[in-house]
TrEMBL record:
SUPFAM superfamilies: Thioesterase/thiol ester dehydrase-isomerase. The lineage of its organism: Bacteria, Pseudomonadati, Pseudomonadota, Alphaproteobacteria, Rhodobacterales. It comes from Seohaeicola nanhaiensis. This is Thioesterase domain-containing protein.
Amino acid sequence: MPDEAALWTFDRFESGQTFGTVNIAMDEAKKAEWVTLFGPSDSSRLPGGMIVAAMMEAYIRAIQPRPNGNVHASQALSFTGAPALWNDILAISVSCRDKEERKGRKWVSFGVEASANGQVIMTGTIRSIWAA
């Protein structure tokens, strides 16, 4: 278990709090992993699923250390249609939208926004049941 003083607990989250921007390179290594799972494509555009995978990587990296046992309860995402291409760097910002205790569970809603080349390509909310 990580140092308790540094651990992101429910009590530390505040509505409107930002966790910064994490840059995720959509490089040849990531493309090779994608192709291994889903097969080759002639398109230079990033598949939506790859944008979601990058968003999850940024969300996990932005809020550390985390307690064990969190539950990713839901997510709602909206894609803008702006282009993102392989070899772009996605800038993904993460924030706390709100938090609430309900039926003994600690719910935290996180906002995410992904941009490529200065254009927003996706926005969304991740809802988690926070373990500590």
